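Table S2 (text version). Query chain:
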Amino acid sequence: MARQRSKKRNPAKAPTRTGQRRQPQPPRPQPLPRHPEHGNQCFLSTACCDYADLLANPFEAQAVGIPREPGLPSQKYKTFARGTFSGSATAGSEAAIAFRPMAANDVYAIVTTTSAYESLDVPSNGDANSTSVTVSGPYTQAQIDTNGDVRVRIVACGVRIRYIGTNLNRGGTVTLLEHPQHAQLSGVLFADLKKYEKAEITVPDSQWITLTWQPIEAADYAYKATSTGALTGATLPLAITCSNPTSTAGANIYEYEYFCAVEAVGIDVVGKTVTTVDIDGQTQVVQALSSVKSNYAARDMLRKRQSPFRWVLSRLSGDVGRTIKAVASSSTVRNLAPAPIRAGMSLLSDLGVL
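Corresponding structure-token output:
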């Protein structure tokens, strides 16, 4: 006769002395690694996670506010434009696009070259054989600049381009530059753009090539009664130029997408939502993104199949970087004492970091 196996008793189902079933105990949390200097660990707030996502990818990330004071309730929206630009058929000529952050829908934000553009410098508004482009958005220049009923600050901005000509004619180089002091690039010779340390030089591609705007000073975080935020006048501080090594007509042609994320306050502004302030975290996000060129960041994220936020974490260095990455790799996240970034998020796993 076969011996019957005794059933294992489930302690969770075993009755206690009082007749109630014992409740299963939650697993004991693993201890977080301790920083050698700061002790308890910390992590980026949700607001800074979303802000990092938007700065690195203003084209697809949701519009959010800057996690920096003043933490006023504000409307978060994007302006955008799409189109094409090209250069002449003369060998050695350049196709170019210059742009700036823009919150108004009736003022040009972009200047592009046409197939008849023969000049040797970055185009400006009104130049022959160039096109000035406005963007889609909810507010006019009068509401912002004239009446002052709407005040804005720029959160993020960028242009991405891709080659749409034939592979047979694809060649030359692509130069991307954001002026280090957000000064005027219109009128600068194409050859002089490459002399800037911050310039990035790559080759034409049918995949997106990206140039993004970054805040560089305190004025970039203030609300202004001007549709370009902290920029003055007709400044176009960002430009992409594409050289043409052939003499084939229509060879040097590109598609572009422009997106600008804006935060707005004022009596004419509706749909306001809360803006969380996390100055320490916001500073670290900007530091991580400004440490590399914007197109490299976009390509590196795509190659590594990482979210912009996870990529930003990988760029942080020093004590702050080790602190954040230690928590990001931990199996347990707890709200511990902030040092030096304020804690404001309960689960990094919601963002796919863990």
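Notes on Table S2: The longest strand covers residues 151-163. The domain at 72-274 is CATH 2.60.120.20 (Jelly Rolls).
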